[in-house]
Amino acid sequence: MVDLLAICAHPDDAELLCGGTLLVAAGQGYRTGILDLTGGEAGTHGSQEERRREAEEAGRVLGLTVRRGAGLPDGALQDTPEARAQVAAAVRELRPRVVITQWRKARHPDHTAASRIAHAACFLAGLRRAPGLGPDSGEPHRPRKVLYSLTYVEEPVKPTFVVDITDVIERKLEAVFAFRSQFQGKTRIGEIYGGERPLRDQILAHAAHYGSLIRRPYGEPFWTRETMRVDDVVALEVASF
Predict the structure, then answer these.
(1) Count of domains forming the chain
(2) What's the whole-number mean pLDDT along residues 103-131?
(3) Distance between CA 64 and CA 83 in Å, rounded?
């Protein structure tokens, strides 16, 4: 069982999108986990076995309680009833309070599919008679909150909130570059663009941009469908002037 679960398409997606947030949560005493929907077996670089070993190393850096693979097909990930049921069964087993997933529209079709599967699975996991989930799938459970990562999203979407990852930025980078087969010597990967600077510099530039929105060196941005509640308007963070 975990408190915070990242559900993403490929091994290394969670590290790039919300590795800092997972580190912050673990440091606060929460149990954290990653559910990789595929094994990244269709990737251009590295073998599936290499990525499995790299994911294990990255998980140790992040201090994860658990990392699982859903075994769905890389490069052919689709939001089907079968995929939803498979992920919903994992949600019932791990029983996260909060789920982080990918943005709803992305360059990589697998990322878009992962976002839709995660949202649907979190809802279905709470239904006692959910289609595709038999009596052996565990007791119904629905996460309290689903967060969508905005890291590297090109379209102009204002974050609902930003997590300060300043104190863990180096460990986030260590977890990212545990995937040596994917990132070593690269200047761009996936949705990360920005010229010919080393990939490390580009990741830092994105994190610095979102950190600046909360007046901190580095941050990770998230969006929620729901309006966030505030109890103390006098103590609100980030000055207006």
Answers:
(1) 1
(2) 94
(3) 24
| Region for 151 from its dihedrals, namely left if φ exceeds 0, alpha if ψ lies in -120 to 50, beta otherwise | beta
**For residue 48, how many other CB atoms are within 10 A of its CB?**
14
In this predicted model, what pLDDT tens digit does every residue of 94-109 receive, in sequence order? 999 999 999 999 888 9
Asked if residue 178 is part of any domain, the answer here is yes
Which residues, in sequence order, are bridge partners of residue 32? 4
Say if CB 77 and CB 37 are below 8 A apart.
yes
CATH code at position 180: 3.40.50.10320
> What is residue 219's three-state secondary structure?
strand
Three-state secondary structure call for residue 225: coil
- Per-position b or e across 147-166, b if 16+ CB within 10 A of its CB: bbbbbbbeeeeebbebbbbe
Calculate the CA 100 to chain-centre distance: 5
- Taken in order 4, 153, 218, 59, is the CA torsion positive or negative? positive
Q: How open is the CA angle 123-32-181, to the nearest 5 degrees?
A: 105
- Residue 233 Cα distances to 158, 213, 221, 228, 229, angstroms: 20, 18, 21, 13, 10
pLDDT at 43: 67
The pair of structure tokens assigned to 20 is 């800092």
**Tokens matching residue 60:** 């140790």
Residues 116 and 83: beta-carbon distance below 8 Å: no
Structural domain of 47:
4-235
